[in-house]
Amino acid sequence: MLTRLGRVLVRAQRSYSTRIGIVGVPLEEGQNKVGVANGPDAIRKANLIERIKSIHEDVDVHDYGDVSYTPQEDLQVPNMKKYADVAACNSEVSKAVERVIKDGRTCLTLGGDHSIGIGTVDGHIKAKNEKVCILWVDAHADLNTNKTSASGNIHGMPLALLAKELADYWPYLPGMDWQKPILSIRNVAYIGLRSVDSYERLIIEQFGITAYGMEDVENHGIHNVVNMALDKIDPHRVLSIHMSFDIDVLDALEAPSTGTAVRGGLTLREGIHLVEQVHKTGRLGAMDLVEVNPSLGSAADVKKTVDAAHHLLLAACGYSRRGLIPRDPGGLPLQTAPH
After folding, report:
1. What's the rounded Cα separation, in Å, for the pair 9 and 18?
2. How many CB atoms lie within 10 A of CB 98?
C-alpha cells in the first residue's frame, strides 16, 4: 500500500504533462550587431533539450529546427534597414509558430533579434483565433515606426507593427500582406522598461498601455508586478499568453552578451520568478527568448548569458527551484536539478 506521500507523488506524476516545441530563428538583420543570429545555436549546444527533458520523464520536447527564408529582391521601405530580410523571415516564423501551437505544444522560439516578435506573435494569434495577450519583457518599448526610429533598426519596431491601434501610423508595407495588425494594445503589458524613447513614451501614455518599469518592480516587487500585469491584460483569465522575453531586460551584469545592454535591470532571480509565475497560470502558449549574442563579450560573458537564457527557458517548461517531481513515486531521494 502506498504511503500518503506516495499517493501525492502519484497524483503529481499523473497530472504532469508538458509538450514543448522549439523553433530557432537565426535572424540578425533587425539590428546592426553581427552575431545574434548565432544565438539559437549557442543556446541549443549548451544542452538545452537535455536539460528540459530532465525536468520530468513526461516532458515531450520536439525541436522543429531553424526557420529559413528567401528575401524578395529590391523590397525596401524608407528607414527600415534590411526590410526584405525581416519581412521574409517573419512570414516563415509565423507559419512555424502557428504549426507548433496547433500541434498542441508550447512554442519556445530562440532568437535572433527581437524583430522576430512580429512573426511569433502573428503565428500565435492565428493559432489561437486572436485570443492572445502579450507580456513584452524588455528594457525597451519597441514601439517606434519607420518615421520615428533614430536608427532604422526593425528590432525596435515590432510592437508598433502588431498593434491595430497603430496601423494608421504606417505606410503600405510591401511583402507584409501576410501580417495584419489585429492585436489590441489593451492586451499588451510591458515589464522591465528602463530605456524608452520620447515618442514611445508618448504612445504609451496616449493609449494607456500597461507598462511596468524598473521603478515599479522596485516599489511592488516582481511577483506583484507580474500579477498586476496579467490582471490588466487578461482579467478573465481566458487568453493564451505570449511572453516575448528580451535577454536585455536582465541587468547587464546578469546577461552581458547582448547588443543593447542597459544597467539597472532585473536580477536573474526576478526573471526566473516572472517566468515561473506565467507558467503557473497554465496559459503560456509561446515564449520568445531573443537577443543573446555569443559574439559579444568574453567566453565567460557568453556562458553567463546562455546560462541565464537556459534558466528562463527551463522555468517556462515547468522546472521548479523547489525540486523536481520524482520519477519513482515510492522512492527517495528526489531527482536532482539539471546542471
Report:
1. 17
2. 21
Q: Which residues of 180-214 are buried (b: 16+ CB within 10 A; e: fewer)?
A: ebebbbebbbbbbbbbbbebbeebbeeeebbbbbb
Strand partners of residue 191: 137, 212
Residues of the chain with pLDDT under 70: 1-17, 324-339
- pTM listed for this prediction: 0.91
> Which neighbouring-strand residues pair with 24?
66, 110
**What pLDDT sits at residue 329?**
47
Q: What would the pLDDT profile of 183-218 be if each residue is shown by its tens digit?
A: 999 999 999 999 999 999 999 999 999 999 999 999
- Active site residue ranges: 114, 138, 140, 142, 155, 246, 248, 291
Domains of the chain, by residue range, sit at 25-316
For helices 299-316 and 268-280, angle between their N-to-C axes, nearest 10 degrees: 20
Q: What is the CATH number of domain 25-316?
A: 3.40.800.10
For residue 324, the model assigns a pLDDT of 58
